[in-house]
Amino acid sequence: MTTQITPKKTFLRRGALLAGTAILGIGLAAGIADRAFLQNDLAFAQPIELSGTQTQLPSFADLVDKVKPAVVSVRVKTEVAAASDQQSLDDLPPQLRRFFREFGDQEGGRQSKPKPQIGMAQGSGFFVSQDGYVVTNNHVVEHAVDVQLVTDAGKTLEAKVVGTDPRSDLALLKVKDSGDFPYVKLSDSKPRIGDWVLAIGNPFGLGGTVTAGIVSAQGRDIGSGPYDDFLQIDAPINRGNSGGPTFNGNGEVVGVNTAIYSPSGGNVGIAFAIPASTVKQVVDQLKKDGKVARGFIGVQIQPVTSEMADAIGLKDAQGALVAEAQGNGPAAKAGIRRGDTITALNGEAVKDARDLSRKIANFAPGTKATITLFREGKSRDVTFEVGRQPAA
């Protein structure tokens, strides 16, 4: 139902002014004040000129024409195994569990096999190659049994899931039919804070929608995993934009939209995107192997606080404190032990525990690496072979 708003015939500012002057009995003053009010309104409606030139807002039309054909809507049919009757009974108190079992036996029939739950999901994606590879979010295609892509021109394409990476929330799709598809490039550099960016996607299933904003922060940790390194995009991005690209002014993808900050479920102007550098690493591995292999050191670590730094003699509160070195892990084999503070990796300073996790994860399993430790007031280098991170 559409609610129609009827404009009021009474203008409050003008009406209040006339009413006040009528009470004072100054009719002539009312007329003068009324004319002055109208003149002020007319003056306000005139264009404002600065130094003889009129200010113009930037247009993104040329950029949109260039990149929009490479962005697609992702429609997914999902299938999730339903909980069995036995699993449902296990959640009940013993007396009720026994009652339902006996009742089922009296009915004499076999318990039916639970049917899988069928659902639908929608998101966004974009072509990264001419032969039909498409990047989107893992959570868009999770549990997918059927994937369709709808292009900007309205054409529907059947696609398959090549591989997924839940830890980075990225997925790689491939169009089943051969073709020559418009695609976009992943940026080789991070955007600067304050740069204009353009987000294109499929919010609320509406189809291709374009919004603009700026990059307001880098390296955001939103608690989604150990490798959080999000760009914060301050732009109107909503549900359904997941998996869609954020472009810089050159038409290169600087991030993949993944999450929004929303206390109410709607847009409040804050979104988070996976940086293009991470997308490149993940997509290359998914295209090659269908999965992502990350480096593994085998330690439990924690941040170094100012109190800890003072206690162990560190000049600055940075690095990662080893809480435990897992038995037979790469770190333990290299002699790293509890109480050591990891301050650098291959000569590059380690800011904190999260920074170390991201750096180690970027190493290919089997790679030789050198860790700088701070132990008993002295620094020392330890060389080890990076292991393979266990499956989640």
Automatic annotation (TrEMBL):
UniProt lineage: Bacteria, Pseudomonadati, Pseudomonadota, Alphaproteobacteria, Hyphomicrobiales
Record carries keyword Protease? yes
Which parts of the sequence belong to the PDZ domain? 291-352
Protein's UniProt name: Probable periplasmic serine endoprotease DegP-like
Q: What class of enzyme is it?
A: hydrolase
SUPFAM superfamilies, per database record: PDZ domain-like, Trypsin-like serine proteases
GO terms under cellular component: periplasmic space
One example of a Gene Ontology biological process annotation: proteolysis
Q: Which organism is it from?
A: Bosea spartocytisi
Which molecular-function annotation in GO is an example for this chain?
A: serine-type endopeptidase activity
Return any one Pfam family short name.
PDZ_2
* EC numbers for this chain: 3.4.21.107
Q: Which InterPro entries match?
A: Chloro_Bact_Ser_Proteases (IPR051201), PDZ (IPR001478), PDZ_sf (IPR036034), Peptidase_S1_PA (IPR009003), Peptidase_S1C (IPR001940)
CDD domains to which the protein is assigned, alphabetical? cpPDZ1_DegP-like
Concerning its family, UniProt says: Belongs to the peptidase S1C family.
Alphabetical UniProt keywords: Hydrolase, Periplasm, Protease, Repeat, Serine protease, Signal, Stress response
State where the protein is found: Periplasm
Q: Which reaction does it catalyse?
A: Acts on substrates that are at least partially unfolded. The cleavage site P1 residue is normally between a pair of hydrophobic residues, such as Val-|-Val
